[in-house]
Amino acid sequence: MEKASLLQLRIFDLNCWGIRYISKLQQERVELIGDVLNQEGFDLVLLQEVWSEKDYWELKKKLCTCYPSSYYFKSGVIGSGVCVFSKHQILDTFQHQYSVNGYPYMFQHGDWFGGKSVGLVVLKIKGIVFNIYVTHLHAEYSREKDYYLSHRVVQAWELAQFIQHTCKGADVVLLGGDLNMHPEDVVVRLLQGWVGLQDSFITAEKVEGCEDGCTLVPANCFTNKKELQCFPQGIRIDYILYKGLSQYEIRCNSHETTTGKAPNKDIPYSDHEAVMVTLSVAKKQSDEELNHPAVAPTVVDILNEARMEVRVGLHSAERQRYSCGRMAVLALLLLLIQGAMGLTSILGGNIQQPFPKFSFSLLSLLAVLVLLISAVLYLFHTIEVRMLQGTEEEMRLGLQTLQDKLSSG
């Protein structure tokens, strides 16, 4: 017999591609997103890449009647771009900024300046406590040469740990956002295996929209077609994941994505397709097992794979740190040589300066600049090495715990 649901929750998730003065038709699309949210009346709206806080306040003003409660998560140089709008009152919020997030000298990518993070909002609906997590992980940029994979794995591990350690008092856990990974990739499998989250696309009773639930599709006029050359149907990188805790269980009634252009419009909402999910919350029967999942052996393999990616990133970070340190030492030696030559010229009296003063000064300035930049990058990569080492050690302990549970039956 089908259980009577206590409530239904309609969720909207979208990467808005809201970079002012760079993203195409950005202002028009913000207006369009506000209009559809007011029309549809979702219970919960999870947005990413709302990079301008001014856009958030414009949306807040427009949506205040339908979504009286909202929150914008601030971090990094330009902000996390992550915000939440809710029909129900937000009781509490918390944020964790990821320890690694790309490189500050990769200006063309800009992820480091965004301060990628995970935001938590707590809702209580009909006596049921919901922990809602929204995040945006580091972008991939290149499938063949993914220099940021280790950073994204670390972010996924921190996200998984953040959820594990903050959901103790919740009845329902829900995660939405742009994970920048394909469904079969280690990041998604880590969240599913380690935290026990279910993918709304996989479990949905009814699926509509793009084939395979893709959220980057060729039909979208804003999508970079070069990124999809190997994926003619598109790729799925935006997710809504969930699980029930304590005495509640969750069922996904429907999973829907937009398909290119917005209804009755000539443009899409974003370069990503929106994800819309309806979840039902029901109470477990008293004789059902309450939140005691068995440890799956596959989780060990997933964690080993994730740990291996972190190790690869660690070796790369150590090489970069060594290169920066060597460059700093060479620049310091050059400065010392120049200083000795200048001192010899001053004390030597009649000894002629071997270089013109302008060239000598320019070379000194260049050596100082190289020394400063190399020293700063050496410190940055030292921090990166420490963070990767810490994550690798956490994963090792996690693996040991999992293996002990499996061996004890």
UniProtKB/TrEMBL annotation:
<dbReference type="GO" id="GO:0046872">
    <property type="term" value="F:metal ion binding"/>
</dbReference>
<dbReference type="GO" id="GO:0030149">
    <property type="term" value="P:sphingolipid catabolic process"/>
</dbReference>
<dbReference type="GO" id="GO:0005901">
    <property type="term" value="C:caveola"/>
</dbReference>
<feature type="transmembrane region" description="Helical">
    <location>
        <begin position="328"/>
        <end position="348"/>
    </location>
</feature>
<keyword id="KW-0378">Hydrolase</keyword>
<comment type="pathway">
    <text>Sphingolipid metabolism.</text>
</comment>
<keyword id="KW-1133">Transmembrane helix</keyword>
<dbReference type="Pfam" id="PF03372">
    <property type="entry name" value="Exo_endo_phos"/>
</dbReference>
<keyword id="KW-0479">Metal-binding</keyword>
<dbReference type="GO" id="GO:0046513">
    <property type="term" value="P:ceramide biosynthetic process"/>
</dbReference>
<dbReference type="InterPro" id="IPR038772">
    <property type="entry name" value="Sph/SMPD2-like"/>
</dbReference>
<feature type="domain" description="Endonuclease/exonuclease/phosphatase">
    <location>
        <begin position="15"/>
        <end position="246"/>
    </location>
</feature>
<comment type="pathway">
    <text>Lipid metabolism; sphingolipid metabolism.</text>
</comment>
<keyword id="KW-0746">Sphingolipid metabolism</keyword>
<keyword id="KW-0472">Membrane</keyword>
<dbReference type="GO" id="GO:0005783">
    <property type="term" value="C:endoplasmic reticulum"/>
</dbReference>
<feature type="transmembrane region" description="Helical">
    <location>
        <begin position="360"/>
        <end position="380"/>
    </location>
</feature>
<protein>
    <recommendedName>
        <fullName>Sphingomyelin phosphodiesterase 2</fullName>
        <ecNumber>3.1.4.12</ecNumber>
    </recommendedName>
</protein>
<dbReference type="InterPro" id="IPR036691">
    <property type="entry name" value="Endo/exonu/phosph_ase_sf"/>
</dbReference>
<comment type="similarity">
    <text>Belongs to the neutral sphingomyelinase family.</text>
</comment>
<dbReference type="GO" id="GO:0071944">
    <property type="term" value="C:cell periphery"/>
</dbReference>
<keyword id="KW-0812">Transmembrane</keyword>
<keyword id="KW-0443">Lipid metabolism</keyword>
<keyword id="KW-0460">Magnesium</keyword>
<dbReference type="GO" id="GO:0004767">
    <property type="term" value="F:sphingomyelin phosphodiesterase activity"/>
</dbReference>
<dbReference type="InterPro" id="IPR005135">
    <property type="entry name" value="Endo/exonuclease/phosphatase"/>
</dbReference>
<dbReference type="GO" id="GO:0006684">
    <property type="term" value="P:sphingomyelin metabolic process"/>
</dbReference>
